[in-house]
Amino acid sequence: MKMIRKSWIILALAALCGAAGHAQKTAGIKGLITLNEKLPVTIQLVEMQPPGTTAAPLSPTIEVSEEMTFAKEFDLEHPGFFYLITQVGEQGNKYISRHICYMRPGHTLELLYNETDEHTFFPETRDITDQENKMLIENDLFFYQLSRMAWENPPKDVEACQTILKQWEDYYLESLKKYEGHDPEVIEFAKVQAYERYLSLLYQLPLINEQANKVKMNVPETYYALPFGVSEFFDNEKAMLFPSSASHLRKYLNTNNGVHPNARLTLPQIERNVELLKKSVSNRSMVDKTIESMMEAYILSYKMSETYEQDKAFFRKLAVHFSSEEQRERLCTRFDYLKYTTVGSSAPDAMLKNEMGQLVTMEQFKGRYVYIDLWASWCIPCRKEIPFLQKLEKAYEGKNIAFVSISLDKKSSTWKSTLEVLQMHGHQLFGGESAFAEQLNVTSIPHFLLYDPDGKLRMYRAPAPSSEQIRPLLDKLLSQQSIDK
Q1: In CATH, what number is assigned to the domain containing residue 455?
Q2: Which among 340, 364, 391 is the end of a domain?
Q3: Beta bridge partners of 41
Q4: Which residues, if any, are the signal sequence (predicted)?
Q5: Considering the domain boundaries, does residue 276 fall inside one?
Q6: Deepest of 56, 141, 240, 346, by most Cβ within 10 A of its Cβ?
Q7: 109 contacts 119 by C-beta, under 8 angstroms
């Protein structure tokens, strides 16, 4: 009997330990939302991750009840920083609040939301007992209010920009002092975040001024002096959690080399920036990300010329600074692709698929002019062009021209359902699994291309179907072709 009793005790203790272990591997969030009017609300947590992380970020969706309460538990192995994204309203009438919180196993974050006006939707910080999250949300709210003030009342001059920067600097120094002694992980994060936001304001405020006054602002070099050490921010691993960090570092390098922070750089300027970068920052991930940022920007703004081969050699020379051979080759390949953007070049040898799943190449359209529309189902401007494209296709039916629409949707099922909904006809191809758009250095859609009957690029940026220029252009080309025959 005693043996049986002992066995039950052991089993009970094991169960309790298991339950406790499970509790320590879950985190929770709950709260109440008060709105001025009844609107749908969606909430999602998205884990902050540095670039190159292979695992997908944790992103639990939090259901909001009819009574506007919410509660969610989710598996969490280790403490981490998350974006808490709250959307109020629906498409066309919505606003989004985003702030950062610190989630840890065995802890539930409690929040009370009150809508202060139609643009501001933050948790009430006075009701937050969790001091670490109280600090993070207070910081987000103050930065939001400061940024909003700058947009609503643009700084008139450099001195006004500096006043706003000083407000942020004074605030975050006081905040760090106020919460000194709390979780060092969160305090360090808050410090790094404060620097990131200082840099955001530093580079954004002159642009706000220029946008308001329609005149370029004369910014002295002294304006860009930082109140903290460069390595203090950029060498901290937590800086990699902020997607804008590499962009900030690029602007810092520009201004320290006598170039406008947003300037389009030449290859020699990039080379000088890389030299300064390696002297200033030792964080290898940050160095690689910043070099990548500069070189990708160069590719995107590159204009084909007779110096292409020389530029390609210089580009490859700069690419050796990457620590990753894979990254180096990827960017060099992208630069090689620029040859497809020059007038007279052949189309990329990409394998596209039609609705039946059959492979189609651009070679199959040789002998005709080919007008290509690169689009996607999620792209509203693309969808607006479709009726004009269909009218254009009917108007030139029987002529020596093919109209080809290439979808860049990720999923072929999405593409096919959109074809049905919009009743699209003609040559419809799926390019979501090919490198066609990347090979043509297409950075925005809709994008229209025109190839001649020899399969050579005639226009890299052809007029849109809705434009007044497209029909006269096609009429001229087709009539000229008839004369030549």
Answers
A1: 3.40.30.10
A2: 340
A3: 88
A4: 1-23
A5: yes
A6: 240
A7: no
Please choose, from the candidates 78, 82, 71, the residue with its C-alpha nearest in 3D space to the C-alpha of residue 104.
Answer: 78
CATH code at 49? Answer: 2.60.40.1120
- Domain residues for the domain of 77 are 24-125
Residue 276, pLDDT score: 95
Beta-bridge mates of residue 406: 374, 429
pLDDT digits (tens, 9 = 90+) for 57-80: 999 999 989 888 999 999 999 999
What is the C-alpha to C-alpha distance for residues 366 and 404, in angstroms, rounded to an integer? 13
At residue 461, what are phi and psi to the nearest 5 degrees?
A: -120, 85
**Residues 351, 437 within the same domain:** yes
Q: How far apart are CA 80 and CA 189, in angstroms?
A: 10
Alpha-carbon distance 453 to 457, whole Å? 10
CA 295/CA 249 separation, integer angstroms:
14
Q: How far apart are CA 464 and CA 67, in angstroms?
A: 49
Whose structure tokens read 């590499």? 246
Mark whether 28 and 116 lie in a shared domain.
Answer: yes
Q: What is the residue-wise DSSP string for 99-155?
A: EEEEE-TT-EEEEEEEE-SSS-EEE-GGG---HHHHHHHHHHHHHHHHHHHHHHS--
Q: Is the pLDDT of residue 415 over 50?
A: yes
Q: Tokens at residue 46, please?
A: 């998205």
* Phi, psi for residue 405 in degrees, rounded to 5: -105, 125
Structural domain count of the chain: 4
Q: Is residue 16 part of a domain?
A: no
